[in-house]
Amino acid sequence: SLTGKPILDKRGHFAGYHGVGSDITGQRRQQEQIAFLARHDSLTKLPNRVLFSELLHEACTHADQHGIALLCLDLDNFKLINDTLGHATGDAVLVAVAERLKGAMRQGDIAARLGGDEFAIILYTNDIEEALRVAARIIERISRPYRFDGQLAHIGMSIGLTTAPQDGKTPSKLMKNADLALYRAKAEGRGVARLYDPAMDQRLQGRRQMQAGLRRALTGGEFYLEYQPLIDLTSKRITGAEALIRWRDPERGLISPAEFIPIAEESGQINEIGNWVLFEACKTAATWPAPISIAVNLSPLQFRDPALLDSIKAALSESGLPPERLEVEIVESVMLESNTQTEYALWQLHSLGVRIALDDFGTGYSSLSYLRRFPFDKIKIDRSFIRDLGYEKDDSSIILAIIGLAERMNMVVTAEGVENEEQLVLLSAYGCTQGQGYFFHRPLPPARFLEALRASETDRATPPPANAGAVL
Ligand code: C2E
Ligand code: CA
Ligand code: CA
Questions:
Q1: How far apart are alpha carbons 80 and 337 in whole angstroms?
Q2: How far is the CA of 299 from the centre of ligand 2 (A)?
C-alpha cells in the first residue's frame, strides 16, 4: 500500500512525493480468508449456500446459451451414521463425500454444501442424458464403503435433477424443481436420481389439498376406526384387535392410511390425528370384555412429542381402560432415532403396564441392538415375509430366526398378513404365537368385531372335532 503527498518547492513547483509504502500482504490474506469463510463451508471447503446462490444466479443468466443442470443431493440416513458411529465419524464422512463429489464432476462444474447432509451441483451441459449419467456416477461412488480408523461406514445418496432453460430459468424455480425431484427420489426408496417433471408440481398440489382435507376431517368427524382381530394360534381365540384408521372424504371417498398418514406426518398433523385414534380406540376397547386388548399404531413423530405420555395417560383414565389392555405398535425407526426422550417415554409406558410391540419387523435396518436396550413385549413379523410362505424360495429361515429370538427374549410373535391356510399351518408349526390377517378377519367396524369376538368365544366352548386339523 502506498500513500503519498506531493512535495512543492518554495516557488510552489512539484518536487516529488513524500509518503509511506507498507506491505499489507498479511492483512489482504486475512481479508480474503474472511471472505472465503463467509462463502464456504468450513468442514468440506465447498462453496456454502450463500456463494452457491450467487453462482446459480450467475449460471441462470447464461442458461439460454449453454444450458445447465441443477442437482440437489441428500445423503440417505446420515443421522444413523452420526448416532451409531459418532459425530467425528459423521464429519469425516461429509469430508470424504465432498472429495468424491469433486472427483465425479468435470472441471468448471460447481459443487456446494448447502448445510447438514445436503449438497447441490451445477453442471454446465444441455444434455439431459449426460446429467443423468453424472448423477448415477455420483451415487455409485458415494455408495462405496468408507473406512475410518478400521471402522466401515456405508451411506447412500438420493439426487433430484432439473435442467435450465427447459424446466425453468430462475434460481428459485430450479431449486424448487430439484427439491421436488429429490423428494420423489427419496420416496422411491432412496439411492436413486430422479429428473423433475411437471407432474411433480401437481402431486405437490395434491399433498397440499390433502393437508387441508385432513384439517377438516378431524373437526368434521370424517375419521373412524376399524378393528382387526389378533388370533392366538394355539387356542385359536381372538385375544385383541389392532385399531386401523379410516378416512372417508365426502368428495373423494375412502382414502387409505398408507396414503394420508405420511402426509400427516410431513405436516405435523399426525400428533392431533394420533391423539384422536388413542382416545377413540381406548374408549371402544373399554367396552370389550377383559382381557381383550387393543393395539394402537404410533408414528415415530408422535414419540418426538413430549406430550405423548400425558395423552396416553389421559386416554386410559378417561376411558377407564386398564393399561395392561393397551398395546402400542412402534416401528424400528423410533429406536434408531431414539434419544433420551423417546427412551424415557418407552420406559414410562412400560412401567405403566402398557405393552409395546415392534411393528413391521424385518423391513428396516433390523440392527437388533435395540432389542437389548428395551424389553419389547411383542414382535410383529412384516407381512412381506408371510406372503411367500410355502413357495419355493420363501423366507422361512428368517421367520424361524425371528421366532427363536422372540422365544428366548420372552416376546410374543405375531405374523401379519396371514391370507391362507397353508401359511397358518406353517406358522403354527414354526411356533409362532399370534396371527393377524384376512384369513382370520379383515379390519372390522366395532359391532362386527364384537360379533367375531363372541363367535370366537363360543367356538372355544365347543371343542373342535378330532380331525379338524389346524383349521380354525
Ligand atoms: P400396519 O400397521 O402394518 O397395519 C396392517 C395393515 O395390513 C392394515 O392396512 C391392514 O388392513 C393390512 N392387512 C391386514 N391383514 C392383511 C392381509 O391378510 N393381507 C394384506 N394384504 N393386508 C392386510 P391399512 O389399514 O391400510 O393400514 C396401513 C398402514 O397405515 C398401517 O400398517 C399403519 O402403518 C398405518 N396406520 C393405520 N392406522 C394408523 C393409525 O391409527 N396411526 C398410525 N400412525 N398409522 C396407522
Ligand atoms: Ca401396525
Ligand atoms: Ca405392520
A1: 8
A2: 10
